[in-house]
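pinging the channel bc i need a second pair of eyes. not urgent but kinda urgent?? the chain im working w is below, pasted from the shared doc
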Amino acid sequence: MVKSMTTPPATKKATVPTRSSDRPNVQRPGEESVPIMKMRPTIKYEADRVRGFGREIMSVPGCEQLQSCIQCGTCSGVCPLSIYMDHTPRQVMALTRADFKNEVLRSRTIWLCASCYACTVECPQEIRITDIMYELKQRAILEGIFPKRFPIPILAYDFSEMVKKNGRITEMILVIKLFMKTSWLAALGNWRLGIDLIKTGRFSLVTEKIKHHGDIARMMDAVDDQKGS
């Protein structure tokens, strides 16, 4: 008895994704969907480098070990926010050391850093990556290179200016400034929380100052002068 030969139905040919933007967003049951970071092919040109930028960063206390980076990717692997960054922490370290100042300071990565210090703890070369991120943030603020209406650099700048002027911050005024410079509509959605904070004394309606606040201003100016601001 001869078995009948049947031709299996035609199936679509499987394709292998070549870029992260082609890769399907695999979601396991019960897990929250996480968007995959899109890869951007880029070419680096010698003319894009700002000679000496990497050495300037490495001259700052706490950033000296950047030269020892072996590009192992451990920092990117342990970073909880790397999937949302335009450049991974490993790439930021490489770009900084290679003098690509403008690309680093315009990156959103330095502003998404949560300062959890996971990268610093796990780095096999004991590089203080979080401190380097702080230094890059300060450089971007001083040079005005940061995403417009982005709350993190605006908050950092107003915070330091208020400390320099009064010796401490007044949270109510700081929050109002932040909303006015980013999205004042967001303040409308938090009005109830604001009232509760005022009632409990967490938000002061009076500007808070300390004695001899000028001493703090002189110390902050001295640090800025050392960085060449």
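so Residues 27 and 33 are 6 Å apart (CA to CA). and Confidence is low (pLDDT under 50) at residues 1-24. — does that match what u expected or am i reading it wrong
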